[in-house]
Design a protein that fits this description.
By secondary structure, the chain is mainly beta. 5% of the residues lie in helices and 49% in strands. The strands form seven sheets. It has a five-stranded mixed sheet. A four-stranded antiparallel sheet has the order 2-29-28-27. A hairpin with a 5-residue loop joins strand 11 and strand 12.
Amino acid sequence: MTTARHSRSTMATAVVAAIALVGSSACGVVSGGSALKDRGARPVSDAVVATIPLSDYGTDIAVSGDGGRIYVPLRTGKVLAIDAASRRVAGTIATNGQPYAIALTPGGARAYVTDLTAQYVFALDTVNDQLLKRIPIGIIKRPVMTPAVAVSCDGARAYVSSATARDDHLLVIDTAMNAIVGDHFLEIHPAGVAVSPDGRLVYVAGCKLSCINGSLLVLDATSAGVVSKIPLASAPSGLVLTPDGSRAYVPNARAATVAVIDLATGAVTAIPVDPEPTGIAVDPLGAFVYVTSFGAASVSVIDTRTSAVVATVAVARGPRAIAVSPDGRLAYVTHSSSTCSVIDLRQARGA
């Protein structure tokens, strides 16, 4: 979600800064208003149609393929399974760790969750709401500010960012065996991972050293060899692909922009959004991208046809992760508080 990347000499400072950003609502950060009104974005104040109480704040969020369940990792070590119809917690999965990022297999029967301390990947049985396996990945050597995970469209592989004492890695998990089958060096500190729809390419957004410059690495999914590198702005803080795999969207928390990358040409354009963009999601048709802005307590609605912010939705303070229902009608947002907001996206878009 949020990120700060670091050279070894500035690592500790960057770590503190990034942690402060992720959890700053607990320190009394005051919501800012949207800065996009002057650019023609329509302010929306009534699109949040419900709130779901949680037992702690959620670090990420995912929706099952049938839209029936919502999964939220909590900083207290649990993953909540929420019934989307009743908007009540229907199950709790204990991990005995610090779950952070989550990705579901296409059928929704499994989930893979990263550990903030970078010691495990948690394989979850989402049919029976239980932990299948803690897949060990080592002992933390230095913080991974945004441990990311993505699952291929066929559900056969999960890709997870990790770190050792000296460098960063991309781990490949065989989901049939729940075992690591690949461990590949990364030349950047990863902030987001995604897989192309055909499963042939893996995309990793991140940056080097103190994150003066960012990069999107395009990797061969089989060998993890670098196919190409696309320069980005300073500090990427996430990554999402359109459903057809033609474009990538990367929020930049430091610059308050979202980069739009044409994956065929490598061309990059930037869309201004509200301060501290963190979470990002795309609707099932690829028509709109939704971006949470931690610093403004808002969600920016980006029309992918025009690459413009068409609306900003007011939400509770400290919005973090966002996920869209499979029918594209609702979005679910976690916050740095014990709540999940439910947004009517038709109302948000003015449809």
